[in-house]
Structures are given as structure tokens and as C-alpha cells.
Design goal:
246 residues; alpha+beta; Alpha-Beta Plaits; Pseudouridine synthase; nine-stranded mixed beta sheet; two-stranded antiparallel sheet; 13 strands; elongated
């Protein structure tokens, strides 16, 4: 089945009925917002614009609050297709900071351990990155939304509780080091659904004989959808209101 998609750039012309029938909106998530906050904001704005009591709105793949970039948001009947978008490959760019780890594997928590970096060369970085290409075992971070026995892992982590997390197989088709300015290393990764870039940062640090954490992350693509075609929440709202004023 070929999906009929109206891009978010035309949101000023999208009607109430079209939102209900189903739209795919490409949103550039801002820093510090949760994915759920973006969904809730867009749902509220659509409801306000058309005086609706309710409308289905959901996203295809969570981004952490400290990440920016592409969120695919579906409305109406298109929410039934969310699983199809979630299953597609993702592309990310970002920065690993070497020589230190954090419990969350990113900047959400403070540094807990430091490691040497003097032995890390450009050649070692490239060689180590190549070792992560293909199917790899990866453990999700303890600070994640995965449920175990009915509780989110991050809820346990914030209480200081520990739990065994099972490794899963994920696939990385591209892992490119794009800039080196130690202790920071910029990268681009293309990976399968379920890949945690925070875990990749942690594992990359270990493989280097050091430590690392994720200090910046941006999702640039999901399948054939690019963040370059997306709008910020503010731009989306402005378009929506422009339509109502005409």
C-alpha cells in the first residue's frame, strides 16, 4: 500500500477533515522538550484551531529530551501507520566526549568516572568505529523508557535501584567519524530501530580502552524523511494560525 502523505510545510492549508483522515507531520524537536510534550502541544493546537474535543496524534520514535531533530508525528487515521515509520532506518549526527562516563550515558546525569585518553589516536578512532558496523549486541541504558516488570527503567535508576538489562541485537550500517577535536569526536550513524546512540557512546568508549558519553545528538533522517523538510513546533503553530486568520 502506498501512503498518501501531505507534508507539514502545507499545514496552513490542511483542513479539519484532513487532520482526522490522517497527516504525517515532520517536526524538528527542540532541545529539552520530550517527544510527548511535542505531541501534546501539536494535539492541543489542532484541537484549539478547529474546536475539537479530541483527535488522535502520536509520534514514530522517541527522542530523548537532550536530543534534537526529526520527529514523525501522525494524526488521525495515520496513527495506525506509526509502526511502519518506527521500523525504518534512522540517521543521527552528534558528539561523543571521551575520557568520562555518566550513569545515563549522556549529559542528563553528572560524570561518575574518568579515564585516560592520551593513547587515543585518529587511527584508533577509525579502527574502533569500523568494529561497530553490522549486527551488534547492545544493552539499553538504565536511564531509558523501556519497561521491566511494569516500571520504566529510568524510574528505577532515579531511585538508585539497579536491575539486569538484557542485551539486544541492533544493526549499524554506517558509523562515520566526521570530526576529531579530542576529547570530543563528532560522528554520523545510520542504524536500525531500537539502537541507543547513548549506549553506542558508552560501548565505543570501552572499546577505545577509555570511557565516553554522548554530549550532543540530532536525528537527521527516518527512512526517506529528512529533518531538512521539517518545521519547528513554533513554525507549525504559526502556519496553523495563519490559516485561521485568512
Amino acid at each position: 500500500m502506498r501512503l498518501q502523505i501531505k507534508m507539514v510545510q502545507n499545514s496552513a492549508q490542511i483542513t479539519e477533515e484532513e487532520f482526522k483522515e490522517g497527516q504525517v507531520l515532520l517536526i524538528d524537536k527542540p532541545l529539552t522538550w520530550t517527544s510527548f510534550q511535542v505531541v501534546n502541544k501539536i494535539r492541543w493546537e489542532i484541537r484549539q484551531r478547529f474546536g475539537l474535543k479530541k483527535i488522535k496524534v502520536g509520534h514514530a520514535g522517541t527522542l530523548d529530551p537532550l536530543a534534537t531533530g526529526l520527529l514523525i508525528i501522525c494524526t488521525g487515521k495515520q496513527t495506525k501507520q506509526i509502526h511502519r515509520y518506527q521500523a525504518q532506518q534512522k540517521e543521527y549526527t552528534g558528539v561523543f566526549t571521551l575520557g568520562a562516563t555518566t550513569p545515563s550515558y549522556d549529559l542528563e546525569t553528572d560524570i561518575d568516572k574518568v579515564f585516560p585518553t592520551a593513547h587515543i589516536s585518529k587511527e584508533l578512532l577509525y579502527k574502533t568505529a569500523s568494529q561497530f558496523i553490522g549486527d551488534i549486541e547492545q544493552k539499553p541504558p538504565i536511564f531509558s523508557a523501556i519497561k521491566k516488570e511494569g516500571k520504566r527503567l529510568y524510574e528505577l535508576a532515579r531511585k538508585g535501584e539497579t536491575t539486569e538489562i538484557k542485551a539486544r541485537i541492533v544493526s549499524i550500517s554506517e558509523f562515520e567519524i566526521t570530526q576529531i577535536n579530542l576529547p570530543q569526536v563528532a560522528f554520523r550513524v545510520v542504524c536500525s530501530k531500537g539502537t541507543y546512540i547513548r549506549s553506542l557512546a558508552y560501548d565505543f568508549g570501552l572499546a577505545l580502552g577509555s570511557g565516553a558519553h554522548l554530549s550532543a545528538l540530532r536525528r537527521t533522517k527516518i527512512g526517506n524523511f529528512s529533518v531538512e523538510k521539517g518545521l519547528t513546533t513554533e513554525q507549525f503553530i504559526k502556519n496553523l494560525n495563519t490559516h485561521s486568520e485568512e
